[in-house]
Amino acid sequence: MVITVADGAGIKCQAGEFSLLVDPPSQRKGNLILKTRTELPIDSFSSENIIWGSGEYEVSGVRVHGIALPSESTAKTVRSIYAIEFDGMRIAFLINVSSELSEDMIDGLGEVDILFFSADAKKIKPKQMVSLIKQIDPSIIIPAEDSAAKILMEEMGQRVKAEEKLTVKKGDLIKEDMANKLVWLTTK
């Protein structure tokens, strides 16, 4: 799987011909699109490959578990986090989280291999961010924003350089140096 930051915002995971986009900045085409923040009302003619809320889904063999963030949702906005099974790995997306997660939410994510993470630093302190990440205990942590990368590098004591992409296979995750490894991706 090849992971990049798409068009300056959003995330792209590509495995073979299948592309997964998370919060793309425009109506980019992908086999599967996840929205962590969706404005209401929802277009009833929205494509079946766009997932914007809680529930269990399967698109082209990719299983998705969406978890609602009721404390962050409003009458005009739905907020969600996701855990997916893709290319033999479990990937979780916690983007712009502004409150701590309940034990049920963390359990719903399952055993995470790769965690995409960013949080509202005005509402969640850096130490709380790291505590949440440690509860999830992923092999790889990818900050979804440059500001999150800088905070996490400082709090986790890891110095990493920004990369354009990450290429990873399930077998790579078993190596000892892959426990809570921070990977900083930036635009090309």
Automatic annotation (TrEMBL):
- Give the superkingdom in one word: Bacteria
Q: Which InterPro entries match?
A: RibonucZ/Hydroxyglut_hydro (IPR036866)
Q: Which Pfam families match?
A: Lactamase_B_3
Annotated protein name in UniProt = Uncharacterized protein
